[in-house]
Amino acid sequence: MSSQEQPVVPKPSLLGLPLELRQQIYHEYFTVDGGYAYNGDSGKLVQTNNQPIELSLRYACRAIAHETGQYPFTLNAITFSTLYRQDWRKRAASLSYITHHHVTFQNAMLFRLKRHIKSEMYEDPDVKYSQYIPAIRNGLARSMASWDRFRNSVPDDSEDSEDSRPFKTLRELRSQPASSGTWGRSTVIRLSGTDGTIFFSRAADYLLRRVAKKDPREFSQAIEQILPS
Fold first, then answer.
1. CA–CA distance, 21 with 25 (Å, rounded to integer)
2. Which tens digit of pLDDT belongs to each residue from 59-76?
3. Domain-terminating residue out of 59, 79, 99
4. Where are the compositionally biased (Basic and acidic residues) regions (predicted)?
5. Which of 113, 118, 147 is nearest to 218 (CA)?
6. What does the DSSP assignment read for 80-124?
7. Which residues on adjacent β-strands are paired with residue 46?
């Protein structure tokens, strides 16, 4: 080697650092004070001060992108807040219409099949909706007791039978537009007047599935009574 030649000094590189040091750098780089927040106007995650999230380091190369894949979301909490958007109004109304129809349909099916729900079917429900099973059971018991008291007063030629009555309200509701307000006044079994959790619907689904398994013919007949031919 000539005395005039200078030794080649390798360029400093992030990937040339020990992994433990790189991890500390990643931790400092991706940690954001206050975490991330959902911006309803843009539909994107931003910093809590509404500034864009800085992720440029991840685009340096594939190796760094691979090493940092989980850092942004494991180091930062994400905050979602209620918001109002004009363009979501119709979507929200449609979702409310569909959800209410589904719950009302489940309710009608429960009342139609109430005498086929045996006592053992109420037992050992999943713990996440077990609190609703007693409310459903009590509601159906009251319905059966009421019908048993007044069945003799119903004319023989009446179209109002114990089997058809649960679907009468549902058919009337289906003929009403979603904006009529009628949907919000239907009678549905609830733990309380304001209850509307998904677990209540799942509790109804749990019972209906047990009836369908135990008495598939009766369940099919109930479906045929309400669904359009």
1. 6
2. 999 999 999 999 999 999
3. 79
4. 163-174
5. 113
6. ------GGGHHHHHHHHHHHHHHHHHHHHHHHHTGGG--GGGGSS
7. 37
